[in-house]
Write a structure and sequence with these properties.
It contains no helices and twelve strands. The protein starts with a strand and ends with a strand. The protein has a single domain, classed as Jelly Rolls, CATH 2.60.120.10. By secondary structure, the protein is mainly β. Strand 8 and strand 9 form a beta hairpin.
Length: about 120
């Protein structure tokens, strides 16, 4: 399994990379990764007109899109669509940040899982 990661380098430039999630346990009910730290859960609804200018992430957090995607553009120019069902770990909490824009003209519901 892979998740997307948006992070900032020492100069504050944001970039994407992919992180492989390893399976560490297998049982009759499926495969599991190790336990990752989390400090809560936030539910969010975003309108289909969502188009946010440059901003850093408010905190390190996982975001899981439930029913629609979002286009995220890193400050290095790379743009990715994070579709429904995909996970992104945002860590660009300093520097220029990123752009966020709704795709597909849909309301997007997501789950945010802070890790700080």
């Amino acid at each position: 399994m892979q998740i997307r990661n948006l992070y900032a380098d020492a100069a504050g430039e944001s970039h994407f990379r992919d992180i492989d999630i390893a399976w560490t346990e297998t049982s009759p009910s499926g495969d599991f990764s190790r336990r990752f730290p989390a400090s809560g859960i936030i539910f969010r609804r975003v309108p289909p007109t969502y188009d946010l200018d440059w901003h850093p992430a408010p905190r390190r957090q996982y975001i899981i899109n439930l029913d629609a995607g979002v286009r995220i553009t890193a400050s290095d120019g790379e743009s990715r669509i994070i579709d429904a069902g995909q996970v992104v770990l945002v860590e660009d909490t300093h520097g220029k940040g990123h752009l966020s824009q709704a795709v597909g003209g849909k309301i997007r519901h997501s789950v945010h899982i802070p890790i700080d």
